[in-house]
Write a structure and sequence with these properties.
Length: about 280
C-alpha cells in the first residue's frame, strides 16, 4: 500500500491497462519506488542531520538522487561500527626442500587443519593462498585444499600478482608493498562476509609483510628454527569496522595444536617397528 501510495502521489493520472507501453512505465515507476523505499529503510540517519520544518535535510544519505547508488553496496550494509573482522594466517605445511611440494607429513598437517577449521567458532567464510607464480610448487594452495574441500569454499589464489613475489628482503626493494594488494583483498573479503573469518595460507617470509599491511605494529618475522612453532604457528588479526574502512584492532599468536609433527609421527612409527615416512612396501 505504501508503494502504491508513493506512485500515486508522483503521478495521479489514471493509465488504461490496455495501453501496453504506459502500463510498462507504471510498473517501472513502482519498481523505482520499491528500490527507494528499501534504500531509505537501510540507510542510517545521522544524528547530525538537520531536517527541521521548512529546511532541506543536510544529510546526503536522505538525498533521493544518491539512494540508488547506495543500494547493494556491501559497505553500506555494515551499519554496526563495533563490528569486528577476523583474519587467521598460517604457513604452508611441511615440505622437504625450498621449492618442493608438501611431503607426507605436510599433507597430514593440511588434513588436520581442515578438522580445526570445521569448528563453528573459527570456520572461515573466505580463503586465500599465496601464489608462487612458478617460483616453487604451490604448497600454500596444497595446504588450503583439504579445508576448502571440507567447507566447500573456493580459494582466492591471485596474490601476489605475477612479478610481485619476494622471498628475500635483500633482493626486494620494497618487500612490504608486495603484499599490499593481498591485504586490501582480504579486507574486501571481510566486507563481503560481514567480518569473516578469513583464512589465509601464506609463504612464511611474506607473513611479516602481510601483517604489516594489515596494520600490525612491529610485525614479527616467522618463528623459524623450532619444531614447536615452525609450521605450527598461527596468527589472528582482528580489525574494526569504522564506518568507512577496516582499521587494525589487535593481534594474537596462536598455534594449530600440532607441534613437532614430523618428530611425533616418526616416534609413533618407530614404536610399531615402522619408519616414517614409509615410501613403499614389498611383500
Amino acid at each position: 500500500q505504501l508503494l502504491i501510495k508513493s506512485a500515486r502521489s508522483a503521478d495521479r493520472t489514471v493509465i488504461p491497462i490496455s495501453d501496453c507501453m504506459a502500463f510498462r512505465q507504471r510498473l517501472a515507476a513502482l519498481a523505482s519506488c520499491a528500490l527507494l523505499f528499501l534504500a531509505q529503510s537501510s540507510i542510517e540517519v545521522s544524528a547530525e542531520a538537520s531536517c527541521s520544518a521548512g529546511e532541506a535535510c543536510s544529510n546526503p544519505d536522505l538525498d533521493d538522487s544518491s539512494l540508488l547508488s547506495k543500494i547493494g553496496s556491501p559497505v553500506r550494509r555494515l551499519r554496526d561500527k563495533s563490528l569486528t573482522g577476523r583474519i587467521y594466517i598460517v604457513r604452508h605445511a611441511e615440505r622437504t626442500t625450498d621449492a618442493s611440494c608438501l611431503n607426507a607429513t605436510g599433507w597430514i598437517r593440511a588434513g588436520n587443519l581442515s578438522s580445526f577449521f570445521l569448528n563453528d567458532a573459527v570456520r572461515p567464510k573466505k580463503m586465500f593462498a599465496y601464489n608462487y607464480n612458478g617460483f616453487a610448487c604451490e604448497r600454500c594452495l596444497q595446504t588450503a585444499l583439504p579445508t576448502a574441500t571440507a567447507l566447500q569454499l573456493d580459494v582466492v589464489h591471485d596474490y601476489p600478482p605475477k612479478g610481485y613475489n619476494c622471498f628475500s628482503p635483500v633482493f626486494c626493494k620494497h618487500p612490504a608493498k608486495k603484499d599490499k594488494a593481498a591485504a586490501a583483498a582480504m579486507k574486501a573479503a571481510l566486507t563481503e562476509t560481514s567480518g569473516g573469518p578469513v583464512l589465509t595460507v601464506w609463504e612464511s617470509l611474506n607473513t611479516q609483510w602481510l601483517l604489516a599491511e594489515l596494520g600490525v605494529p612491529d610485525a614479527p618475522m616467522w618463528p623459524y628454527g623450532t619444531c614447536e612453532l615452525e609450521y605450527n604457528r598461527m596468527y589472528q588479526v582482528d580489525l574494526l569496522w569504522t564506518g568507512d574502512e577496516w582499521a587494525y584492532s589487535s593481534y594474537a599468536n596462536l598455534t594449530e595444536d600440532m607441534p613437532c609433527l614430523e618428530e611425533r609421527l616418526s616416534a609413533t612409527a618407530a614404536s610399531a617397528n615402522l619408519t616414517w615416512p614409509q615410501e613403499s612396501y614389498t611383500l
